[in-house]
Each structure stands twice: as structure tokens, then as C-alpha cells.
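Contributing new records

If you add data, match the layout below exactly. Sequence lines come first and carry their own label; structure lines follow with theirs. Keep one chain per record. Anything else will be rejected by the validation script.
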Amino acid sequence: MPSFETAPDQTPPPDAVHPRDSSPQTPTSISRLNETIRDFVQRWNAVWVEGEITSWNLRGGHVFGRLKDAEADAALSFRLWSSTLQRLGASPQVGDRVVACVKSDYFVKSGDFSFTVSAMRPTGLGDQLVQLERLRAKLRSEGLFDPSRKRTLPFLPHTIGLITGERSDAERDVHRNAELRWPHVSFRTVHAAVQGDRCVPETIAALRTLDADPEVDVIVIARGGGDPQTLLGFSDERLLRAVAAATTPVVSAIGHENDHPLLDDVADLRASTPTDAAKRVVPDVAEQRALVEQLRSRARTRLTQRVSHDLAQLEQLRSRPVLRNPESLMTTRAHELHILTARGRDVVTRRMDAAGHEVSRLRATLRALSPGATLDRGYAIAHLDEGVIIRDAAQAPAGAHVTVTVGRGAFAARSEGVVDDGAAPAEAAGSPADPS
């Protein structure tokens, strides 16, 4: 029978096999392959490239980012060490167009290919950033950013509308943090694409669906962080105008604190993260209970103080003499009234007496000065028929009819002419006329 003896293993170790000599029987090692690639890449010279910064992440003083070709769908990853970053002066930002001196680098341990930047110069804003700034200026001029048009969020919404990606971290963050703050919070979630071509139309459709729901009091549009390129949908003019036209308050919770799509400016409230949105939309039940207890304690203290103060005031009023013996006030006032009444009566009586004496005196004076008193003393008044009082004897010639008024009545007489001037005037005046 033939013998099947095993021949000694003559396969060389993988590290000894060059990648170009590898075969299924003689494979090379990964480290040898990576070293070969590194040696090949290191022979490349540094080149200057122009592109738009689409990612700029600072970690440990170093920058890890991406450059995009503005004219073609191409991009590269780069590393920028801290020493190079310090030489740049002003730090570039996402959206800046730059020219950079890059040298290819291949890392043996991880098998990662990247470019190391040794110099970078800004050449202006990227095309996308320019378009965003133009749209920002346009919307601002139309008043879509004005604080006066922003609606106030309800204190405790009945139902929260949530627009986010399906099974996303943002959805879990919003639900978990909202339920921790208010366990009975209610959500109506509509899933939509949060990047790519479907992002804008699906987000607009979800927004209109939730805005038409009468039970939804506030709408949250949430997405986790990402490359600025993936967040461009939330700066789309169609979505921004749909948010501005919504009747329900809208909260923007896109990315992280440093992400700032235009949706943040149009929305009624900007939350830095989805977690922050949950904290801003619903109150903290523990804080509200503490506030209620604090208000109840304050009200109890104020009410106790007020009742104690009023009781002290009441006791002070009750201790006054007038309230201890109310009849004393009436007695005192009655005595004063009696005195005042007697004094008034005396004053009126004296004034009446004085007035009566004055009237009597004036009456006597008037009577003494009146013509009637003169006639009572024996004087008479003679007047002609025409009523003319005779003051001169010549006014009554012989035969003139004269009426003579005395103290008690009047009688008719006829003049006999002028009496001799030697006769006494008093006797002539006082003698009755001869009627014959």
C-alpha cells in the first residue's frame, strides 16, 4: 500500500510574504499589507486643494473635518494638528471655502486613510453658506424672525406633537425626559426622514398633520446632531414658510448647541438639543409640587398673620371705654345736647326781647314823626278840590271850596278870603271854617 506521510510544513510566515506574492496558500498579514500601503502613500507629495468645509470637530486640541468639492460630489477627510491650528490665527468655520495643503497619510493600526493639513487659507464663504445667508436676510426682511410673531408655549400641553426620525435617539430622548418631568404627558409622534431628499416633504406633511389636530398644543421637530450637510433640510425655504404659517407653536430641536439651522430662527422656540426641548415643553412635576407647597405655605402664613392682626385690632377696639359701655357715649352726648339746647333757647329769647324793644322804639319814633300824630295835636291840612295843599293863604281866595283834614276825618269849608295879617296864624289855622 502507498504511504501517506505528512510532509513537513514549508509555508512561510505571513509577515515574510510580500502582498504582491500572496496566494491562498501563502497569505500575507494585515500589518504587512498596511505597511506596504503606508510606504506607497508616503511617497506622494503634498498637494493644494480647494473645497468647502462641511465638518469641523475639535477634539483634544486637534481638528477632524471634511472638505467638499463645490463642483463635484466628492469629499475628503482631514486631520489638522493643534500646532498647525495655532498658526492659522482665525479658526475657519463650517461653510468656509478654503485652500489647504494636504499630505496623504495611512494609519497601519486602524487601516484608516486620511489627509493631514499643514496649511490652510480661507478663500471666502462656501456656496451653501452664501445661499443660506441670502435666505436668512430675505426671511428677516419679511419679518419671519420677529419676536413679536412668535407664539407662547402652553404651560402644560394636552398633547405634544413630535416630528422625528423613526427609532431615533432624538425620539427616545424627548419621550424619556418629558416623561421624567411629567409622567402623564401625552405624545402624538409622526415619523419623517430627517436628512436627504425626503426630509423636507415628509417633515412638511407631518407638520400639517399635527397642526390640523385640535388636541395637539405644541409641535416639536427633533433631530440628533450630524454633519452640517445632513442638516440642510432644516434650512429649506419651503419648510421654514410652512412652520411660519402653522397655527400651533413649533419648537426647533435640531442637532447640538453649536448647530444652528434657519429653522431655529423661524420656530417659536429654539431648543439646543432634543433633551432640552423636552425640558422646555413640559414643566417638572417635582418643581411644580414644590412651588404649590411653597405658595400654600406662604398663603397660610399670610392668612395667619392677617387673622392675628385683625384679632389684635378687634381686641384693641373692644378694650376702649366707648365699646365696653356704649350707653356712656349716649349719656354724655345727651347731657351736651341738653346744655346746648338750653343755651340756644336763652340766646334766642334774649335776641327776641332785644328785637321787640327795638321794634317798639322804632314804632314810637315813626309814630312821632308821622303826619297823623301832628294832626292829633290839633293841626289840620287844607287842600283845594284839585288836591293841591294850601301853603299860602293867597291860594284860597274868598269863595274857594276847601277840604280840611284833621286828626279824625275831614270836612268841607269855604274861604272867606285872606285874614288880616295881624290875626294869630295858629288860631286862624285851628278855627273851624264857617260853612255859611
